[in-house]
Design a protein that fits this description.
The protein is mostly helical and about 180 residues long. The chain contains 6 helices and 2 strands, in the order H-H-H-H-H-E-E-H. The protein has a two-stranded antiparallel sheet with strand order 1-2. Strand 1 and strand 2 (about 145) form a beta hairpin. The longest helix has about 35 residues, at about 10-45. InterPro entries: NaCa_Exmemb (IPR004837), NCX_ion-bd_dom_sf (IPR044880).
């Protein structure tokens, strides 16, 4: 392992510089990734909301997954659970900032009033509620050594993705102007 990746022995300033460089690389990769997912959605006909939720959501959740797995492996279960909730809260805060300052009085949903996005919002509320319940109550039951909450959250996620795909491009909910 190189000296730069042994963060404990580095100075605070060197670690901060490594963090900033990593953040810039992630920012650059994220902008490229969003363009490629948009292109992929157009070429495959999957729809932007579905491709965004599945591909962009999956790719941008990889750091949270790594952090959560590392925290779980080291025995810091509370850190692992609250990391996931903190990530969702941060994303919602970013959306609120965009809504308040960038869009200048126009709601974010004005630009994409499509049923799959509304469905994604509802599914997010449900999944965050389930995750909050899991963190709050702890694991009450297990099936063959696997907790019920992880199974329930996985099934709810798969169901949410299926519903978003099903409602992609559904004209049932139109806009009125």
């Amino acid at each position: 392992m190189s000296a730069l990746t042994e963060f404990e022995s580095n100075s605070v300033w060197l670690n901060a510089a490594i963090f900033v460089i990593g953040a810039v690389l992630v920012w650059f990769a994220g902008t490229k990734l969003s363009k490629y997912v948009d292109l992929f959605a157009d070429r495959t006909g999957l729809g932007q909301a579905f491709a965004g939720a599945l591909l962009l959501g999956g790719a941008t959740s990889l750091p949270e997954l790594a952090t959560t797995l590392t925290a779980s492996y080291s025995g810091a279960g509370e850190l692992a659970g609250t990391n996931l909730l903190g990530g969702v809260v941060m994303q919602i805060a970013v959306l609120a900032i965009i809504d308040a300052f960038v869009l200048r009085g126009r709601p974010l949903t004005l630009f994409s009033p499509n049923s799959s996005l509304l469905m994604a919002g509802m599914m997010l509320i449900g999944l965050v509620s389930l995750a909050s319940a899991a963190v709050t109550t702890g694991e009450l039951y297990d099936v063959a050594g696997i907790g019920v909450w992880p199974i329930l959250l996985f099934v709810a996620y798969i169901g949410s993705v299926w519903l978003m795909y099903r409602y992609e491009g559904d004209p049932r909910w139109g806009t009125t102007r």
